[in-house]
Each structure stands twice: as structure tokens, then as C-alpha cells.
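Researcher: We're teaching a course module on how sequence relates to structure. For the next exercise, students receive a sequence and then see the predicted structure as C-alpha cells, so they can try to spot secondary structure elements on their own. Here is the exercise chain.
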Amino acid sequence: GLSTQPIWRKLWDDVMKTRPPNSESITCWRKKFLETFFSNVLHGVLDVSSDWRLNDRHFSPLLHSSPHVSQLTLCNMLQGAVELTAEHNHKVLENLAGSLRILKFQHLLSCDQSVRRSLVLLLHRLIHHGSVSQVSMYSWPVPDTVLLVLILTMSAGFWRSGNALSYHSSPCGLCREEDKGQSQESAQEGAERGCNAEREGSSGEKRTPKEADAAMNSGARSPPLRNPACEETSSEVPCGHTSIRESSSPGSSSEQLSCHPIRRKTRRRLKPAVGRKRRCLRRSRGRYADPEDLYDFVFAVAREDNSGLLDKTSTTEGENTENWTSSSPGCPCAGHGGCKKRGPAGILSLKAAHRFRSVSTLELFSVPLTGETCRTLSNLLSSWVSLENLILSYNGLNANISCILSGLRALSRHPECRFRVLRLSDMFSHMPCMELVRCILSALPQLRTLSVSFDLKNQLEGSRPEANPSCSKAEIPESCLEVLEIRFPREPLHTAFLLPVLKASKSLQQLSLDSATLPCPQELGLLLEVLREHTLNLKKLSFHDVNLAEHQKEVLLLLQDPGLQEITFSFCRLFESSTAEFLSEIINTVKRNSVLKSLKLPGNRLGNQRLVALADIFSEDSSSSLCQLDVSSNCIKPDGLLEFTKKLEGHMQQRGGQLPFTHLRLFQNWLDQDADTAQEALRRLKAMCSVVNDAWDSSQAFADYISVM
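Model: And here is the predicted structure for the students to work with:
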């Protein structure tokens, strides 16, 4: 029953000899130590021989700590992947396959094929036969296309058979066992089908193509995954029939994912046809790479010139391609480009790939995506049924966002789709924020969380497309949206554009509006009316960097709202031109509100005097249930914090020693100006509630502020 946290904290100091980042938020020092210990040993940051407790030839640091590692970061030249796939670390890799949940890549560099081969084995074991549910890539300014597409493809659950690292020849025993079991099942079912065929032939009965296809499918490890766009275009002809068609041109002989059923195991009846096609394909594209090359399936199609290829494909195949790459009729994105290229060029060839387990979260942060890479990612997304969260940040998408949405739209039509969270952020916006939001919700009505964030408008204002007329007219289907976050690039907030989104999002519980400008004084009032009328389930409302100095009436109305449990006014200049009466009205309004649980006021120039006044929210006559208060970045000094603490203690005594107040946030205040007074105030505060603050150098921050004025 005794906690070992202090022991692990001391071990950190003894072994790591560094101060852990964000130590205030660490809930389990044992987990934090063992994960960091594993990573530092793996990357050579920690010398095991330097500590007598670790310098033992019978002790394996990686083996000992691997069962406790839930997230791992691989950097630079992927030396960690090479080490983990080495023979002597076989048991370490087995442990990671059971414990690892998040795999991160950071600051990657180009590497040779032997390193990539190790990476393939690592991804295959940790994703396809492991427990990794999230793959993240960070800070890759000039991504190696081979490496990027490889990680994306394997994260989506694909691994091509027929090369030197296929599961038929790899050291992965799990694949061989599954293949052996599948072969035995297929042989047994093949014999049964033969007997059934003889009986049917003798009785003169015939089966329909659908019944025959169902019988052939009965032994598959999982049902094939088809792109719904393909099914809508040609519902009578199964996509599998197009995948075995021969062609004289290299481009037309490679299928798109949108017209190809993804199987975990190839159907036995189609093996001869697939084999003939692969031999034909290898002869026709010998100029690209060795047919056994691991990355043959990544680049062979992507490098084809797409000119004239569409004319060589059949009508059905062309319709499927166009249906997949173009925007749906009536979609606001239709006029903004996107996947304009037709035909197989730039589309990943997954002809001989097998489908394995895939991750549920994909995150790409500061990884530029070209048009070709976007088409490959869109192709993968269209059948990535396990994907639940997609986070794309600072990827320079611009018009290619339409291509990504095209793949997600195809995915949303799949009956097994689990996609729920989409977060998009970038430096420049290609189209107005509200138009993009409407386009996304029109394509993905099943979304639960949508976050759209842009720093600036397009560099060349003239190159930015005008608002699409179809956007204002198109109806948004009723959505399942619960969380909506929009960061405007200093764009005006027009309630008329937001209204259709809110009307369609009746389940909305959280709304965040960031960096918007109010075009007229009445705009905020109109927004409040819309919120009261159409978002009855709204629980959290946040404004950040929105000038509310002249909207005191609306602020008070929000604080009176009987449904809101959390309100945030962050850097909204609330008290820039206010009077003492406005602060008193805020306090009295919150005192009467028994629903509000959290009030966040960072960056509003409260100062000492207003902070002390806020303590009256918890007076004896208050019916407030407020338990969280955030007063970060409010020019609060130690003497003001101490006076606030004393006043809070007085209210606590009047209420019999109990307050609903449980959390106080004090980041980036001027508490370093008198360390002793600040420490006394914090000590007394922590006896009443949980306090989160930081060691902030106010003098340096002030100097930085002056330097940029």
C-alpha cells in the first residue's frame, strides 16, 4: 500500500541527471522513468556502464524496460529501428509488440535500403502483429518520399507479397503460421466446394454469380474492402473482375485502390490470373526497379506519366477513377481543384498487397505533402476502415485538401467506417474557413470532432479562390458533430455563414472560436441568439483572441447561460475599457450561476485588484458551483496573490471549511518579483485547492514584449 513514486523520482535524478519536462503533469514516475530509460539507452544517450547498478553483463536494459514502454520515438537515421530488429533483441521486440501504443518519427533523414528493410520488419511486427494504434511524424521539412509512403502504407495495414520481405519469406513466424492455417482451411473448403459442384452438376442446378462469389469468399480471413465510389458506379460488376484484366500499357495494368478489393488472403480461384498479370507487369516496368525490390510497389505507378492513360482504360474503370478523384456533385469543394489528375498516375499500386491490422490514429506535423503524396494518402484513406483520428498540421496542403477529403468521403461510405476526428491546421488558408468547414461536414456527416486552424490568409490574396456560390446554397446534412474548433486567419466572423453549420450540428457540445474579428457590434449578439436556438446541448464555449472590450452586455449574457458548464475568454481584452461596475456584474452573475463549473480568463489584464475581487465569487451568500479558475497571464504579483488567498480563506471559514473551488491555474504571472511572498501564498492556496503554476521569468518576458512592439 506504500507509494513508490518518490523512489522513481529519485532514480530519475540519479540516472537521468536532467530535469524532466512538464514534471508537474507527470502522474506516474515509474512509467515516465522506464519509458525514458528505454529510449535513452536505445539511442545511445544514456551510457549504462556509467552506473554501477546497471553495469552487469547479465542485465539487459532494453529487455528489462520494454514491457513498460507505451510510446516510442525514432529519430534521424532510424538507428533505433536497426537495433530493435537485430537478432539479439528479438525478445525486446516481442515485448514492445504487446506494450507499445504510440510510435513517433521525428527529424527523419534519408537512409539506405538496409535501414529501410529493418524499418519494414519493425512496422510489420509492431503494427500488423502488434498493438500500435497511433503513428505520428514530426518535423520533416524535406521528406524522403520513399520513406514517407512506406510508413503511410504500412500504417494503413498494407504489405506487398512477392518481394524479398513478403510474409512468405520473412522471418515473421506469425505470418507463416497464419498462412499455413489459411492454406489448410482453403484446401478443405476447396474439396467441399468440389463435392458440392459435382452434386449440383448432377442435379442440373445452377448458382447465380453472387452465390458463387459468396461461396468462394467463405474461407477468406476477412471480407474484402471496397471503395464505395466504385460500388456506386458499377454495382453489377464486382471490382475484383477489373483487377484481373490484362493491359498492354504499364499504367493501365496497375490498379487503383478504389477499384480493387483489399483482401487479407488472395482468393485461390483468382491465383492463376493474378500470377499472369504480375508477370506481365514485371516485364513492362523493368526500367523502374528490380521486380523483387521492396519499394517497387511504392514507386512504379507513381512515376508513370498519366498522359493518355485514361483513354486506354475501359469505360467502367474510367468511371470508377473519375468518381473517386473528383468531388461529389454539389460539394462546395468542387470548384477548388484537388484531385484533378485522372487515371492511375500517382496512385499507389496495391495489386499484390495483403491487408493486415492498421492503426486508428495518424498524425503528420510539419511534414510537407506534395500533390502526388496527397493522392497516395487519399488512396489509402479511402479504405482505411480502422482509422478514427486524422491530424494534419502544417503540411502545405493548399488546394490538395480537396484530394484528402475525396479519400475521406469514400471512406465515410464504407459500412465499417470508424472515422470520427479530423484536425487540420496550416500556415495559410486556401479558402475561407467557414467554406472549408461546410465542405468537410457535407462530406463527413459522421464526424464527432472537427478542428480547422489557419495562421494567415493566403500569401497572394489574388490567388485565393472566391467564395463558391454553391457553398451558400448547399444544404449541410444533419451531422453528429460534438466538438467544433475554428481558428480564423483574422477573418471576420459572419454569423450567417456559421448558422447552417450550427443548425446541422444539433449534438454540438463544445464550440471554440479563435482569432476572429467581429465585423459589426451586432454580430456577437446574433451569434448568441443562434447558439441559444440551435445548440441546446452546448456545454463548453471558448473565445480566444477575439476583441470583446466593447461587448460587455454579451459577455454577461453568456455568463448567465443556464446550459454552459465551461466558458473561456482568453486574451479577449475584457477589462481594457471597462469600469469597476462591469467586474462587480461579472462576480454577481457567476455567484448566481449554479451550473458553471469552469471559468477561464487568461490574458485579460486582471492585475492584483481585480483578482482579489474575484474571491467574492465564493462568499457565503454565493450559490456558485465554480470549481476551476484560470487567471494565467494576468500581471498578478505575489502580494496580490497573497491577499486573494487570505480573502479565500475567510470565505472558506464562513462556509464551514468547504469550498467548491478545486483548481487554480497561475501560469505566466509576475510571481518571481517576490519569491518569499509568492511561496507563502502558494503554500496556503495548496491547502485549499490544486494550484498549477510555472517558474516564469517576467523580466525576460517583458523585454521580449518590448522588443516586438
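Model: If you want an answer key for the exercise: Residues 173-203 form the longest helix (31 residues). The two ends are 56 Å apart (CA to CA).
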